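Model: You mentioned two targets. I'll fold them one after the other.
Researcher: Yes, keep them separate.
Model: Target one:
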Amino acid sequence: MFRTARSKVQTWITAGAGTIAALFVAGLMGAFGALPAHTPPLLPLDTATDAGRWRIRPVRAYVSHARTYGVLLKPGQKALVLEADMTNRTARSDKAYFDVFKPDGLALADPMPMIALTRDGTLTPELHPGMTERMAYVWPLAGEAAVPANLSFGVTAEIFKPRDNLYGTPGWFNPYRLGTITLPVADVPAPGTGP
């Protein structure tokens, strides 16, 4: 009987200690969850940055009031344009670059930009491994949309996994916000409308 009572006391103590440890861990996790989110860093403009499968170097941003790199605008529209040098860091030609840049704080009719090579206006080309190309990201905007003099763009990167969890094949996964770039935004009037 003494042994049974002793076993019961040990069981209660063990269960109580486990409960206390679980509550302590849950409290810590809740405390860390309440911490402010980590702010992505401001990325440099003067050097190239590795952003997952792309190496990027933003060059300039401007608002265009006319057709830009073959992207047609509807009457009353203008376009926000971001030009960036991009290098494909992978071993294959690729055009999975649509989500790399996103302007912060602007109401976009379509968050998906039109993208063109600046050298010849080719729309959505595949970029070849190791070749740096200057690309123009073009977002149509309403003519009355206000664009600040300095605009921040979020930069999205991905993580390379030699094997994914579903098929066991290599690829780029888990997009995340790598950081932010901030550029001055020039205003480029349509031809024939300047002073």
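Model: Target two:
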Amino acid sequence: MFISLFKGYSQTEEDYRLIVGVTKFTSLDIRHEQFANMLSERVLDVLNQQNRFLVIDLDGTARKEVINKAQENYKSTNWIEANKSINAEYTLAGVLTSVKFIRLNAGKGYKATITYTIKIINTESGEIIQNGTATLSSNESEIKLTPETALESAIKTTIPELSNYFTSSFPIKLNLVRIEKEKNEKAISVLLDGGSKVGVQENLVFECYYVDNSLGKPLPRIIGKIKISKILSEDFSEAKVSTDGKEIYSNFKEEKKIICKNIEK
């Protein structure tokens, strides 16, 4: 007989979002460095608005390495070595490849066009993740009084595509908040605290784990897999347990924080 567990067990509140290390963008043309800085700020705004990421600022050796490799090898498929000094699961960097200004209205206005490339790297492996490279170009932008405001307008036209890129490219990490159905102390279906707003789709497969801190350093312990069966809302999804339902049930009952991360293809 199936039993619905309507009350979730209390779990320690921790920030389980994906940790993304970012660095200010650079430009292929040194004369446009200030525009690359402007671009990086707008990209970070989009990243933070999704509320899926814990963003950290890279500095020192880590920042220098990412900048150099991003600029020198922005077309390659593996351009960052595994760098343990970067305390992030993923690394984001970008290159401003082209920016142009056109003077209009007898020199009283400006229109801008921009093209830039972004890459997302799995920091540990150094590999570009699925859909991890994007080249974005501005479309029809507005005429503005200054080059800077014209560039802002051009960047703005790339924001919808940029937002979709972040949604579809990064793995999704969610918290298991409730066991919906169980049988003989085996989890059958579970509730996750993420839905359509963060890009969850039906049939996505997630790996479930908890973090073991008993050794002085965090060690992820894989306890099973689940598959999204229904998108309930912007903020919640239901998933069927594919493997190790007893492990998921027992660890959740022990009030361990169970994190679910979709498996990269």
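Researcher: Noted. Anything on target two?
Model: Residues 1-13, 74-86 have pLDDT under 50 and may be disordered.
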